[in-house]
Amino acid sequence: MSKVIKNGTIVTADLTYKADVLIEGGVITQIGPDLTGDEVLDATGCYVMPGGIDPHTHLEMPFMGTYSTDDFESGTRAALSGGTTMVVDFALPSPGQGLLDALQMWDNKSGRAACDYSFHMAVTWWGEQVFDEMETVVRDRGINTFKHFMAYKGALMVNDDELYASFNRLSELGGIAMVHAENGDVVAELSAKLLAAGNTGPEAHAYSRPPQVEGEATNRAIMIADMAGVPLYVVHTSCEDSHEAIRRARMQGKRVWGEPLIQHLTLDESEYFNADWDHAARRVMSPPFRNKQHQDSLWAGLQSGSLSVVATDHCAFTTEQKRYGVGDFTKIPNGTGGLEDRMPMLWTYGVNTGRLTMNEFVAVTSTNIAKILNCYPKKGAVLVGADADLVVWDPEKEKTITAESQVSAIDYNVFEGKHVKGLPRFTLTRGHVAVHDGEMRAQEGHGKFVKRAPNGSVNKALSSWKELTAPRPVERSGIPATGV
Ligand code: DUC
Ligand code: ZN
Ligand code: ZN
Ligand code: ZN
Fold first, then answer.
1. Which residue's CA is minimally distant from atom 1 of ligand 1?
2. 259 in Cβ contact with 236 (< 8 Å)
3. Rounded to the nearest 5°, which phi and psi values hold at 308?
4. CB of 221 within 8 A of CB of 163?
5. Interatomic CA distance for residues 372 and 370, integer angstroms
6. Which atom of ligand 1 is nearest to 58's Cα?
7. Other beta carbons less than 10 A from residue 323's beta carbon
């Protein structure tokens, strides 16, 4: 049965024009005037855009002694309700666990997804098994992105020797390195010092992770990536210190991307200071919320193109889980939600304020990341042949965000009380109408895994540094017979 989206205005990362969209077998088969189909979806007054892609989620993730509460069922339903049609989650081996073993665990969980999804692989330790399995993950399993935690010392963190080894391996395989860039050694020192001085509350979490720890780690990751010759994607860029490093690297011709979160763009550090314990703890995430100057830097980055993608790092814990950290802020599970609010919040605070054009909105919520992750134009496009992952966006539809009305399974929402204008009329996942005017018709298990191929020779063109400093043996005479 075919469907046609009629009377809408198509908005892509580069074009805005009036046309209908015909969908058959889950893909777009025609774009043009006066199309007909078995079922008509009326898009009068709406924009027809590529569905959102959230490249940074942690669904049902084992972390800090518990599991994040939104799983692939509630998480992908939440995504669809807000116009997001694909999520990319992190398969996370525990230290010592094989990559393929971890991937099996994520395969099992993700069977319930209502929208399409992909995985990034995390490298949480280093050894021959990881080195070997990386090739299988890239070549056979369709995963070309590998995340490294430079923080969470004693748990997920990898050191510089491990980063350098992994980045080199990725360079060989055509993969992309990703980093959670915070200096984990310094965070551990600052945390211990704060606790020893009696600072046990959630605000101490922010003091333990100042912008400098992020700026330092981002710079270090960029330099190591450059030496290894691998493209680098910096997740959750939250501050000018990190953004500045990314901006400079891009100006130097390095393949480096930065990803601000909708939370960091719209919420600031006052959430930790002018509030009760639960309010502050519910907003504990790493990196923490920053001040307004850092926020301005992130918006400027989206406008100028030095930052490329808006994500959520959706990692939702209930209030009860957050209370594991009463008396010790280091035990508050790190993470906030945002999957269903990312698109309406960015539209409201970006497009409606004049900070972003509609085309820029599409670029940073969908098209840019589809290109970076090598799934464009299957995803992130309104083109004939692309998957019909679409959102019919009603710029006049409004609501106030509340935990009570949200899809996410937790008991609060960090955007509680925010008024948004701009919401989906329809969200389609491969042609299936999952949301119609707030009514959920998402189907558990509808989602499919999206395979992504490695990059070709592009990795080698990163910078000329490697060529210029390649080891050259020097022929010399007059070598002394003995050393000192
Ligand atoms: N930061 C969070 O806040 N939660 C999940 C992992 C991370 O890096
Ligand atoms: Zn992270
Ligand atoms: Zn994360
Ligand atoms: Zn279906």
1. 286
2. yes
3. -115, -25
4. yes
5. 6
6. 5
7. 16
> Coil, helix or strand for 173?
helix
Q: Is 57 in the pocket of ligand 1 (CB under 6 A)?
A: no
What are 331's two structure tokens? 């035990």
Q: Which residue shows structure tokens 């499919």?
A: 448
What predicted TM-score, i.e. pTM, was given to this entire model? Answer: 0.96
Length of the chain in residues, anyone?
A: 484
Phi, psi dihedral angles at 4 (to 5 degrees): -130, 135
Cis before 377? omega within 30: yes
> Quick one: angle between helices 240-251 and 292-304, nearest 10?
20
Decide: 334 in ligand 1 pocket, CB within 6 A: yes
ipTM for the predicted complex: 0.91
* Cα 101 from Cα 196, distance rounded (Å): 39
- How confident is the model over 32-62, as pLDDT tens digits? 999 999 999 999 999 999 999 999 999 999 9
For 51, 241, 447, the CA distances from 2, given in Å and listed in that order, are 19, 50, 20
Residue 479's pLDDT band, with cuts at 50, 70 and 90, is: confident
Residue with tokens 């993969």: 175
Determine whether the shortest distance from the Cβ of 285 to ligand 1 is under 6 A: yes
**DSSP H/E element including 399:** strand 390-400
End-to-end CA distance of the chain: 84
Pairwise CA distance, residues 161 & 165, whole Å: 6
The one-letter code for the residue type at 342 is R
H or E element at residue 91: strand 84-91
Tell me the CA–centroid distance for residue 40 and ligand 3, in Å. Answer: 39
Tell me: cis bond preceding 454? Omega within 30 of 0 counts. no
Rg (CA), the chain: 23
CA trace torsion 78, 83, 85, 88 (10° rounding): -60
Name residue 266's amino acid.
T
Strand-by-strand arrangement of the 232-234 sheet: 52-57, 84-91, 116-122, 145-149, 176-180, 232-234, 256-258
Task: Tell the residue nearest (CA) to atom 5 of ligand 1.
Answer: 335
